[in-house]
Amino acid sequence: MSDEYFYGVTLSSSHQSETWDPEAKAEYPRSNKLLIRQALLGPDAKPDELNVVQVETMCLQDSIKIPVAILKVGETRHARLDIEFPDAPVTFTLTQGSGPVHLIGQHLLGALVEEFEDMEEMEEEMLDEEEGDDSQFKEDENKRKGAGKRKANEDEDDDEGEPKGKKSKMSNNAKGKATSPKKNAKK
User: Fold this and answer.
1) How far apart are the first and last CA of the chain?
2) The pTM is what?
3) Where is the composition biased (Basic and acidic residues) (predicted)?
């Protein structure tokens, strides 16, 4: 189970950088994820000033710094971001402009480490049960194959040379011929 909390930070000339790192705090012994939904330019922003928000985070092997929002009064007062940060730390910096720029989103707290261990044990048990179910499935499949062979023998020609059973209907229909109502009435 995960818990979801509002996350918000304001970047301005007096507070240009903010780091999200819940793993550094002992009060969050759970997995964490940050979702940034929007960047909003505050009403006190100066006209004709570009405000650039940059993020620094870890990628596959090293860190990356990249701008995520460029806002300007009269042109772009907000930007929809929808960026997910599965790993901490994440640093947001106002690299240009004086703001204020508000970043809003959600902080997701995952399950406790013990809960993950319990889930792993449950998954292993389920896999063991499925393997047992697979052997039962193979037995049922073999029984069906044997029944299918008997059914094929029943559909062979009778003494009069006419095919009987479902195969006769299918063979007539496959040739474009419809079964006659008189023959069906006799049977």
Assistant:
1) 64
2) 0.56
3) 135-144
